[in-house]
Amino acid sequence: MKMKYVYDDEKYLVSSSQVVDDYMLLDNETFIAPNQGLNTPILFNGTSWEGAKNPEIELLGLPDNGPSTEMAALALTVAQNKADQDTVNAQLLLAMAKQTVKETN
Predict the structure, then answer these.
(1) CA gap 50, 86 in Å, rounded
(2) What does the pLDDT look like over 69-90, one tens digit per residue?
(3) What gap in Å lies between CA 102 and CA 105, rounded to an integer?
(4) If DSSP codes are grouped into helix, strand and coil, which group holds residue 14?
(5) 42 CB-side CA count, 13 A
(6) Contact by Cβ (8 Å): 42, 51
(7) For an engineered disulfide with 34, which of 7, 15, 49, 101 has Cβ 3.0 to 4.6 Å away?
(8) What contacts 23, CB < 8 A, 6 or more positions away?
(9) What's the pLDDT tens digit per position in 35-55?
(10) What H or E segment, with its residue span, contains residue 57?
(11) Other C-beta atoms within 10 Å of 100: how many?
């Protein structure tokens, strides 16, 4: 399985989904993944993805270097915690369902 990324006619990212390894791309699709931390909207230039410029940074005339390493690490931690919580929730739901079936039999 691999990820495909879909962009609209103006080249803006609109969705992504997992597809089989031998999936044939349609128009407005690519296997090229956008880098994490890009500002939205995200634009595909034909070879890579570009994030929108941060207006606050542009107003100050500073270079937009994207998120700091610390922010990227924090985002990764939050994503992992959410995945862990989703796993626990699924386990709890399964246990509750099994208990309900046991009680009704």
Answers:
(1) 31
(2) 777 778 788 888 998 999 999 9
(3) 5
(4) strand
(5) 17
(6) yes
(7) 49
(8) 2, 4
(9) 988 888 899 999 999 988 776
(10) helix 55-60
(11) 10
Question: CA dist 44 to 15, 36, 37, 66, 101, Å?
Answer: 12, 14, 15, 17, 50
User: Which residues fall within 8 angstroms of residue 18, CB to CB, at 6 or more apart?
Assistant: 1, 2, 3, 4
Residue with tokens 């079936």: 101
The SS3 assignment for 75 reads helix
Cα dihedral 9, 11, 16, 20 sign = positive
What is the pTM (predicted TM-score) of this model? 0.53
What are the tokens at 99? 């208990």
